Amino acid sequence: MPKRMTTTQKMWSAFLRNRTALIGGIIAVMILAVAIFAPWLAPYDPLRQDPYMRLAPSSVKHWLGTDDFGRDILSRIIWGSRVSLIIGISSVSLGMIAGTLLGLIAGYYRGKVGNLIMRGIDVLMCFPDLILAIAITAVLGANLGNLILTISIVMTPRFARLAHGIVLTLAEREYVLAAQAVGVRVPRILRRHIFPNILGELLVAATLWVGVAIRLEANLAFIGLGVQPPTPTWGNMIKQGVDVLINAPWISVYSGLSILITILSFNMLGDGVRDMTDPKLRGT
Amino acid sequence: MFQYSVRRILQSIPILFIVLTLVFVVVRVLPGDPAVAALGDYATKEAVDALRIKLGLNDPLWKQYLTFLWDLCHGDLGTSAITGYGVAAQVKKVLPHTLELTVFGIMFGYVFGIPLGISAGVKRNTFVDYFNRIFSLLGLSVPAFYLGILLILVFSIQFPLFPVVGAGEFSDLASNLRHLFLPSFTLGLLMTAYITRMTRSSILNALREDYVRTAQAKGLLERVVLYKHVLRNALIPIVALGGLYAIVLIGSSVMVEIVFSRPGLGKLMVGAIKQRDYITLQSVMVIYAIIVVIINLLTDLVYGLIDPRIKYR
User: The domain spanning residue A236 has which CATH number?
Assistant: First the structure.
């Protein structure tokens, strides 16, 4: 008789069998490693200028060429990964915490409080993500901390809606009703009975939305509302490259490719894991 | 249906009202004095004070708020302190460019996305399906401005087929369309990716329904099952989510306008932020919010039209 697997083992083996999730996960981990070990991986100082090597195409010395200050593109891309990942991951985490809390409260205390929260969420969702982000950045000013705050504000309504929707269905389940019937207090019901059941779906969404957050940051940087130069970010590198697009397209193309691959890896990971955990799609 | 429409239209009024209030508040808390921004840092105190009075900035906040709403009801978006132009006139000038861009993008997405999605859903796990999934994952991941830059590199620099800058004149249709092609193609590719993905999963869901099995079991032609049973039902989520993606696309249009230096609402907004032109910023945000509220309203109305169950809720 085969050994019985625990749930974690089952999930793990399903993950290894799901090619999309696996490839996405491997790439995401590699990009994370690049960001962490940037000082050791980058061949040059990302800020070092070399006036004799301006706009050099890719060569053995500079694999991805140089920009109009003679700075090494590869090194700048490697360092730039830090800004994207820090902003992407921390703003989604903050947005997830705030949004889930709001969604849980609104879903459980329907009536006045719940209504008020959800109408507030509706209002925030009246603006496309990017337009809301641009407006908030204009108020707060562009630096790393404010960008994290801005993007987490944009992410909060998404998580609130998601959590709210799931809670509405869970609140009618027998085990929740049973807990209410025996007099378990509301915070405990939310914590012990509802939260563990929505965590999976929230994490899948969070993985997908890290990509959205990274793209928002890149958009803001391209407009000039991101982390300011000379600190390299992928967005401000593309912006800088656009000015010399005809003569040195590699600056924009390679920086953009880094954004694309990063977002793609998070999307593949999130997509794959969702297919895995969605009971409707299982076994197909 | 009439009752439902009226109820739905009435529901969007309070939302719009709160949105307007929010925009008003956000613009008031922006750092910096708009009068100083307009006159420069070296303006005399008298000049700044005079402009503050002219702009109504010395009025109490509630009075500014009422003036803002009153003017808005009359289609008056105020006068920019920076450029001295009426904002309504400026918006009127650029709005058609933005609308033209996004409407073409959305149409492109539906025209190509629905057939692609259907073929992927019906021929699941074949080459067509894999191709579509890779295409839609790429579309979901690529930032609009990067896609725009790549298209410029190929179609304007490598093969100079289309102009890169501007929007052309509305009076000259050929030039207008030539300028419109690349930007709306950029948005269109993104929308196609969204719609393809959504259509595919919607078809897959519909294919699993009992009524489809019944239809197949009673021996209907595959084609009839597909068109009459699967597609009709798969259409509902496509309409519902299509509105959502249209809103995402409006966000992306800002980036496309900047990359292609196209006049439009997005370009106006970003310019206003850089010049600290608060009145223009406020108006553009209001216009965006109105567009989104209208899209949501239309989505719900069409939704009610194709899914009779919705109206009675």
Answer: 1.10.3720.10
What residues contact residue A75 under an 8 Å CB cut-off, 6+ apart? A42, A43, A44, A45, A46
Domain range for A186 is: 7-277
Q: Which domain holds residue B227?
A: 95-306
The residue of chain A nearest to residue B15, with distances taken between CA atoms, is A123
pLDDT category, B194, cuts 50, 70, 90? Answer: very high
Neighbour-count burial for A129-139, b at 16+ CB within 10 Å, e otherwise? bbbbbbbbbbe
Residue B165 has pLDDT above 80, yes or no: no
Is the model's pTM score more than 0.95?
no
**CB atoms inside a 10 Å sphere around CB A34:** 19
Overall domain count for chain A: 1
What totals of helices (H) and strands (E) does chain A contain, helices first?
12, 0
B124: left (phi over 0), alpha (psi -120 to 50) or beta: beta
Torsion of CA A264, A268, A270, A272, to 10 degrees: 170
List beta partners, residue A72: A66
**CB of B77 closer than 8 Å to CB of B71:** yes
- The string of DSSP letters for A55-87 reads T--S-SSSTT-B-TT--BHHHHHHHHHHHHHHH
Whether B57 is in a domain gets the answer no
Residue A143, sorted as left (phi over 0), alpha (psi -120 to 50) or beta, turns out to be beta
Q: Is residue A168 part of a domain?
A: yes
Chain B residues within an 8 Å CB radius of A219: 143-145, 255
CATH number at residue B118: 1.10.3720.10
- Spatial distance between the Cα atoms of A226 and A88, rounded to a whole number of angstroms: 13
Q: Which string of b and e fits B108-120 if b means at least 16 CB within 10 Å?
A: bbbebbbebbbbb
CA pair distance B292, B289, nearest whole angstrom? 5
pLDDT for residue B111 is more than 60:
yes
Indicate which of B28, B141, B204, B269 best probes the interface with A, i.e. most A CBs within 10 Å of its own CB: B141
Closest CA to B19 of B255, B206, B291, B202: B291
* Assigned domain for A1 exists: no
Number of domains in chain B: 1
Query: In Å, how far is A191's CA from the nearest CA of chain B?
Result: 31
Residue ranges in chain A modelled with pLDDT below 50: 282-284
Report the SS3 class of residue B79: strand
Cα–Cα distance for residue pair B188/B105, rounded to 1 Å: 4
Residue B33 · residue B43 · CB < 8 Å: no
| B236, B306 contact by CB (below 8 A) | yes
Cβ–Cβ gap A256/B269 under 8 Å: no
